[in-house]
Amino acid sequence: MEREDIIKFTNSVVLLSKLLIMTEDRFLKQKLHGKVSDFVSTFVEWNKKNVAQCRNKDLLNSVNNLLDYLEYLAHISKSNVTPLFLAQRNLLKFKLHILKQSKKTKDTTSDVANSAILISKPSTRTKSARLALKLNSNKERILNYIKKTPDVRTKDVMSEFGALSGRTVKRSLKELTDEGFLKKRSDGVAVYYTCG
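The line above is the sequence of HTH deoR-type domain-containing protein; the predicted structure tokens follow.
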């Protein structure tokens, strides 16, 4: 936790407290009190686990909720809005500080990830060898059948492999198509498969 975090947070809370005291309407005061309480509790949680990215999102959501409510108060206010604008400005400064801090965290994290990527060596296997490993015996048999008979229909493949369920054949055809082994063509009535 940095000293600057605490200073910016404290300035925001002091101005929000002044605004809370100046608010005359009981309903608006209760709503502002709830939003300020949420802001304070979120900041305390954020300080406990400063590195967590989700904590940054929680804190930023809390700040955004407060900013939206302050904008609403400025819109309906009939009295002096200067304290309101000061509180809004301080919250915006605090939000900017948090965003800059999270950007620094992201940059250092991405540097670590990039260095890890540079250290690891790419696989020496070719694409076809990797894809061949994904084939199970059913898919391999279906692929060999389609290689021998181009432009084969789904119905023909299912009749050729009668021992397999229709669902298994269709799933295997879909997986082979998704993996790039087969090309699928439809003429509106039937679906044809060829080696891709």
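Note on the example: Residues 82-119 form the longest helix (38 residues). The chain has eight helices and three strands.
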